[in-house]
């Protein structure tokens, strides 16, 4: 086999591979001799089929297998023997001339093909001693724990129907349809929605206009979405809601004791407090982790500037760009609404794609040198956690998809590997803890590490400043609150 480099420019490589006809013939004879003892042909005893007859019957198909074997198995050996790592699967080209292809399959011509690929650049990992990060730490006060316990107890509070007008603290069950300029908007409708008046769960002003309503009332409520509303295309706009009050209920006494905890499926109030504390600490711990990780990645990005393989960048950009356009479509916005142009957005997300690819290669190199691995058991646990997020009737289908799709499993393994490399780095660098307020910890840093697609619309609820975690999907109607028992179970 002869390997000739025809292009070496930056990360791009092109090589021509020639497998002499004699070598192809030898590989074919090996296959024919192996098949001689296995095939059954009428008129011949097992193992007695003449080689020439076998060649006449199976020669071309066996030679095609030889060609496929060279392309699928020998290609990576050829690149490895050159001391290179291909960034993506090499592009393979070979003759398209039918007569030439027939000669190769007949064993009468050399087999020639070209490989076009990009190499992963050589990355020299430096000492980490000059990397310093500040870890923001928020000590959760006892009052925060008690406030959350009270909110959980509120969700367990019983209500009973009452005659007469709804007062603050009462629960109303409503159907509603929201409209802007007389046109209903996606996600602005709901049926049998429970709402405790005074909970500030809905848009400011919405609940106030339901105080004094009775079961059977039909009301039109007018509100204005806050200027900083999470769905930009609704922010600052006036909307009307046609509301039907289906039931008014008064609350039972609010009790925070062991019996309340038991109604939530827990053994005691102390256990409820323990779960709530763990949940809140995990929530703020995740925020701390993200801020530390962001600082670390920013410094790695500054320290490792090199040309990234263009094909990897293109693939990453495609993923980002698809998400950006999906979010814009969901939110009903354009690039102009985001104070940018499509060309400017493309340039921004191309830079982001390049950064992500570079950091991915750096972290992969660090992990390889540190012998960081992800076990099959860890992948399995993460797979189960992923599948659990699907509706119950889709979980088996999702599980089968991941188990039977190597790329899908890679999408689970890769983040686990990255987090383990981050842990390895945090053990090597200088980390200084800094006490911060909750507001400082929750402040949203504008970072280049994340794509900034249009925010998703969330027309039904005003987002609370002290609520962490994910925003609800834009076009979903308001979901009913989970039962108190389920909420408590989910915190464990």
Summarize the structure.
With 492 residues, this protein is α+β, with helices and mostly antiparallel strands. It is 44% helix and 18% strand.
| Helix share bin | 40-55%
Gyration radius, to the nearest Å?
32 Å
Annotated CATH architecture of the largest domain: Orthogonal Bundle
Distance, first to last CA: 61 Å
Say how many strands there are.
11
Provide the CATH superfamily of the largest domain: Trigger factor, C-terminal domain
Query: What's the number of structural domains?
Result: 3
Query: How many individual helices?
Result: 13
The CATH class label of the largest domain is Mainly Alpha
Description of the structure:
With 492 residues, the chain is of the alpha+beta class. The protein has three domains: 2-118, Trigger factor ribosome-binding domain (Alpha-Beta Plaits), CATH 3.30.70.1050; 158-252 and 456-484, Chitinase A, domain 3, CATH 3.10.50; 267-454, Trigger factor, domain 2, CATH 1.10.3120. The protein contains 13 helices and eleven strands. The strands form three sheets. Strands 6, 7, 8, 9 and 10 form a five-stranded antiparallel sheet that branches. A four-stranded antiparallel sheet has the order 1-2-4-3. A hairpin with a 2-residue loop joins strand 7 (171-180) and strand 8.
What secondary-structure arrangement, pairings included, does this model have?
Layout: E1 2-9, E2 12-19, H1 21-36, H2 51-81, E3 91-94, H3 98-105, E4 111-118, E5 132-137, H4 142-156, E6 159-161, E7 171-180, E8 183-196, E9 218-224, E10 238-251, H5 258-263, H6 269-303, H7 310-331, H8 342-369, H9 376-388, H10 395-404, H11 406-426, E11 430-435, H12 438-442, H13 484-491
Parallel strand pairs: 5-11
Antiparallel strand pairs: 1-2, 2-4, 3-4, 6-10, 7-8, 7-10, 9-10
């Amino acid at each position: 086999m002869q390997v000739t480099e025809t292009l070496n420019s930056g990360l791009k490589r092109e090589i021509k591979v020639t497998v002499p006809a004699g070598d192809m013939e030898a590989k074919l004879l090996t296959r024919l001799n192996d098949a001689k003892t296995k095939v059954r042909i009428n008129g011949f005893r097992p193992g007695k089929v003449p080689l020439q007859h076998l060649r006449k019957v199976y020669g071309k198909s066996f030679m095609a297998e030889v060609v496929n074997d060279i392309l699928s198995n020998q290609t990576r050996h050829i690149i490895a023997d050159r001391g290179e790592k291909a960034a993506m699967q090499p592009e393979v080209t070979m003759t398209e001339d039918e007569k030439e292809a027939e000669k190769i399959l007949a064993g009468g011509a050399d087999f020639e093909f070209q490989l076009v690929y990009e190499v992963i650049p050589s990355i020299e990992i430096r000492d980490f001693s000059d990397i310093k990060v500040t870890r923001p730490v928020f000590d959760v006060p006892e009052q925060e724990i008690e406030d959350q316990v009270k909110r959980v107890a509120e969700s367990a509070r019983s209500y009973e129907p009452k005659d007469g007008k709804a007062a603050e603290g009462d629960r109303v069950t409503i159907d509603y349809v929201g409209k802007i300029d007389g046109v209903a908007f996606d996600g602005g409708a709901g049926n049998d929605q429970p709402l405790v008046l005074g909970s500030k769960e809905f848009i400011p002003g919405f609940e106030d206009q339901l105080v004094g309503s009775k079961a059977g009332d039909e009301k039109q409520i007018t509100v204005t979405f806050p200027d900083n509303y999470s769905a930009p295309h609704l922010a600052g706009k006036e909307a009307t809601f046609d509301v039907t009050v289906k039931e008014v209920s008064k609350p039972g006494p609010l009790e925070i004791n062991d019996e309340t905890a038991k109604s939530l499926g827990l053994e005691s109030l102390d256990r409820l407090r323990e779960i709530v504390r763990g949940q809140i600490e995990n929530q703020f711990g995740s925020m701390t982790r993200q801020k530390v990780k962001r600082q670390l990645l920013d410094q790695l990005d500054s320290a490792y500037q090199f040309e990234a393989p263009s094909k990897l960048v293109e693939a990453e950009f495609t993923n980002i760009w698809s998400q950006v356009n999906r979010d814009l479509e969901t939110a009903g916005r354009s690039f102009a609404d985001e104070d940018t142009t499509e060309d400017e957005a493309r340039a921004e997300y191309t830079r982001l794609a390049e950064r992500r690819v570079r950091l991915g290669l750096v972290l992969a190199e660090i992990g390889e040198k540190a012998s960081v691995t992800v076990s099959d058991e860890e992948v399995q646990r993460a797979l189960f956690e992923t599948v659990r997020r699907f509706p119950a009737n889709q979980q088996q289908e999702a599980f089968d998809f991941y188990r039977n799709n190597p790329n899908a499993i890679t999408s689970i393994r890769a983040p686990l590997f990255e987090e383990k490399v981050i842990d390895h780095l945090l053990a090597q660098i200088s980390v200084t803890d800094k006490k911060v307020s909750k507001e400082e910890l929750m402040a949203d840093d504008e970072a280049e590490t994340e794509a900034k697609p249009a925010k998703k619309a969330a027309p039904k609820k005003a987002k609370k400043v002290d609520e962490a975690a994910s925003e609800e999907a834009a076009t979903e109607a308001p979901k009913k609150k989970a039962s108190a028992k389920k909420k408590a179970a989910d915190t464990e």
